Amino acid sequence: AHEDIYLITLLIGGHKSGLEILSQEGEWQDATVDEDVIICNIGDMLQRLTNNYMRSTTHRVSASLLQSESSRYSIPFFVHPNPDWLISTLPSCYDEDKPNLYTESILAEDYLQERLKEIKLILDETNVNAIAIGSSLHSGRIKISELKNYLSKKN
After folding, report:
1. N or C: the chain end with fewer CB closer than 10 Å?
2. Which residues contact 131 (CB under 8 A, 6 or more apart)?
3. Closest alpha carbon to 60 in 132, 131, 3
4. DSSP string covering 79-106, please?
5. Positions of E strands within 3-154
6. In this structure, are residues 62 and 35 in contact, taking their beta carbons and an 8 Å threshold?
7. Do residues 12 and 74 lie in contact, with contact meaning Cβ atoms separated by under 8 Å?
8. Is 116 helix (H, G, I), strand (E, B) or coil?
9. pLDDT in tens, 13-42
10. Which residues touch 49 (CB under 8 Å, ≥6 apart)?
11. How far is CA 99 from each of CA 7, 55, 70, 93, 102, rounded to the nearest angstrom?
12. What is the pLDDT of residues 120-135, one digit of tens each?
């Protein structure tokens, strides 16, 4: 199970069973939808931007024996701000009764890198275990050599 890092994730083609969403009560619920529906998951960046008002969607894909008889395909579209966009809690999302949980702003790219390290998609600056790493590399499959080159420029 995991949450997505970006602002939102649009999931196209998620109409076959297998996708599950963790409810606020801590129970896994099936997220099967009609073919013409696009699923929209809240990501960690939007959670931070809204001071946890909008919660990042915890989800997983689970395949039962019945589901394993056919393939499940979906296309995720990750919505990510420009790398130099400053993530600052929206003023309308905190007040005296609900204090700002994120008093320090952070650049989108710095937040992305921080989260990738937390979830161990980036183990260190030279040993990488990732195939997609955000907007600076235009999200998608990349060669490890390109990723190492990118990381070496960050230092």
Report:
1. C
2. 141, 142
3. 3
4. E---TT-EE---GGG--SSS--S--S-E
5. 8-12, 19-22, 28-30, 39-42, 59-61, 75-79, 86-87, 106-107
6. no
7. yes
8. helix
9. 766 677 888 988 999 988 878 888 888 899
10. 7, 87, 88, 89, 90, 93
11. 21, 16, 48, 9, 9
12. 777 655 444 444 444 4
Percent pLDDT > 90 in the chain is 36
- Tokens for 20, please give them: 């599950």
pLDDT tens per residue across span 81-121: 999 999 999 999 999 999 999 999 999 999 999 988 888 77
Instruction: Tokens for 15, please give them.
Output: 């109409």
How far is C-alpha 40 from the chain's CA centre? Answer: 11
Residue 62, token pair as written in the block: 């689970």
Strands 28-30 and 75-79: unpaired
- Name the token pair of 95: 């007040």
